[in-house]
Predict the 3D structure of the following.
Amino acid sequence: MTELDTEDAKIVTLARAARARIRAVEGAAVRDTDGRTYVGTTVALPSLALSALQVAVAAAVVSGATGLEAAALVTDGDGTDEAGRAAVADLTPGAPVHVADPAGTPRPPAA
């Protein structure tokens, strides 16, 4: 198990809450360089499909964020989400993406 600092644990909690609120497949949260947080969940419509990370990053961008400190993804899956990770990297290359299970238990970083 990986230990998160307090601020990263907060975005995991926000991602869990977003996911649970609408029973989404995944929930995500990002923290911008000003300390503001944004959440997102998986969108699966016939004409639009977005990962939770993509939605959270989009929310940050439309709110004026220009960089991210960290992101969190809560999922039953493996957390690979290449498109979501690419969106995070578009704002801040190298920003950490913390992956946790639905109970909020962090997973070790991917090798």
